[in-house]
Specification:
Elements lengths: L3 H9 L4 H18 L8 H10 L1 H10 L3 H5 L9 H8 L8 H24 L5 H23 L10 E6 H4 L9 E7 L4 H19 L10 E2 L12 E3 H9 L4 H7 L2 E5 L4 H13 L5 H19 L5 E3 L7 H15 L11 H10 L5 H23 L7 E3 L6 H6 L6 H23 L1
Parallel strand pairs: 2-3, 2-4
Antiparallel strand pairs: 1-2, 1-5, 6-7
């Protein structure tokens, strides 16, 4: 039997201690009932999972003893696309489509749990964790499309997929949505209708819940014409849309766009054309004014919930840093092609190398970005939901304070959070206004 002392030591390090305690008691009873060897489990890691994420707690109980191999594993290092694809391709052996998708859910969430284990043991930085989670999302999407192409009548499915937002920049966290655009090469109306049907099925499978967890939530609002636009857009229509006169905020969003599924090389040609339109000479004064105006509007309408801190859209939040990078990328991207990147971190570093901002400012912005993204990740992890705010003063924040390294000292965590956001806003005003 696991000793009470070891249990208490493990629980003392967890984020949600009572939740972890309840789940650990259930797990040890299950081990005894099923004759599993509970002695073999890494108790600190298991308690850490139970205390940080109800989503992964449910997963562990759903897959049972097989979760132990993930929890007890040796360091795996950063994943690569080929090996990850080989692992997830195990889902394709099933003849039934829903069986393939269900197996993919198990495999994908198992890999995600592996990355959480790496993070909880300080083997992954926040940047490495985000890279791993994004690569996993890409390969999962690839497996879904391969699975659809195994259906009778869907063998072709000639669709390329563009990733937007955090997925484009390899900066997804736990709970991140998939922001996707589906493109196809052709004008055939019958083909368009079939592809639309296939894409709807794909999205339904992505979001469908199960006992082993879902795959992802998705967001299609960034496609041309938003929710009113076609679900699948032809290459030509996509090109013409972005070659036209677009609002600056749409240009900002397109700085975070890259192909993740390529049906053919045409998508690369289209993206080169779109980027030529995107990274053109701008009136920098007008560009800066437009971006500042949009940032103020977002903060007023979405970033100022009463009695809450807003990590993403609020004062000194992630969007301050994003909008700084958007301005310099659009304003100078035609001059410095190395600024034409999808990662906020990379853009900030390149801005310094090009002499657009000083090195100290770049380093501080990256550090603040990492801090805010870590806070966001810890907040989202429990339910795997895309939440971005927390109460200004509430005992529920003890778990977040623990996750951020401040134990039960909530005031110290809140002071640190305010220090970071005020520093971000000072830099924002310095380099933008």
């Amino acid at each position: 039997m696991v000793s009470e002392k070891n249990i208490e030591v493990a629980l003392a390090q967890t984020w949600h201690e009572q939740t972890a305690r309840n789940s650990l008691e259930r797990w040890l009873k299950l081990c005894e009932q099923e004759n599993w060897n509970e002695q073999s489990v890494n108790l600190d890691v298991l308690a850490g999972i139970f205390g940080s994420s109800w989503y992964f707690t449910r997963y562990v109980f759903a897959v049972g003893e097989s979760a132990l191999s993930i929890i007890n594993q040796e360091p795996q290092g950063l994943p690569d696309y080929t090996n990850l694809g080989r692992q997830l391709a195990a889902c394709l052996i099933h003849d039934d489509f829903e069986a393939r998708v269900n197996q993919l859910r198990i495999l994908k969430n198992g890999m995600m749990l592996q990355y959480l284990v790496e993070y909880l043991q300080s083997r992954f930085s926040i940047e490495q964790l985000e890279y791993s989670l994004t690569l996993l999302a890409e390969v999962t999407l690839d497996m879904l499309i391969q699975s659809i192409r195994m259906l009778p009548g869907y063998e072709q499915f000639p669709v390329s997929v563009l990733a937007m937002g955090r997925m484009a920049g390899y900066e997804m966290t736990f709970g991140s949505d998939l922001d996707l655009i589906f493109l196809y090469d052709g004008k055939d109306q019958d083909l368009h209708e079939q592809l639309g049907k296939s894409a709807r099925m794909l999205l339904r499978m992505i979001a469908q819940p199960a006992s082993t967890g879902s795959l992802y939530e998705f967001d299609m609002r960034l496609r041309p014409h938003g929710n009113a636009g076609l679900l699948v857009t032809s290459y030509q229509s996509f090109k013409e849309y972005h070659e036209g006169s677009r609002d600056i905020w749409e240009r900002q969003m397109m700085t975070r766009c890259r192909p993740v599924i390529k049906y053919n090389d045409s998508v690369n040609i289209i993206m080169e054309t779109v980027n030529d339109s995107l990274y053109k000479p701008y009136d920098r004064q007008l560009l800066c004014k437009e971006i500042i105006s949009m940032r103020a509007r977002v903060q007023k309408e979405l970033g100022s919930p009463k009695g809450r801190y807003e990590i993403k859209r609020g004062f000194g939040g992630i969007m301050d840093i994003d909008f700084i990078s958007h301005y310099y990328q659009l304003g100078y991207g035609h001059q410095y092609r190395e600024l034409q990147v999808c990662s906020t971190r990379t853009a900030l570093e390149v801005m310094s190398k090009c002499g657009l901002i000083d090195r100290e400012t770049s380093v501080n912005l990256v550090a603040h970005y990492n801090y805010l993204k870590k806070t966001e990740m810890c907040l989202r992890l429990f339910d795997m939901k895309s939440v971005d705010s927390f109460k200004a003063m509430d005992s529920d924040n003890i778990a977040l304070s623990r996750a951020m390294g401040h134990g039960d000292n909530l005031n110290r965590f809140l002071d640190e959070f305010e220090t970071v956001t005020h520093s971000v806003r000072r830099i924002y005003e310095k380099v933008m206004i």
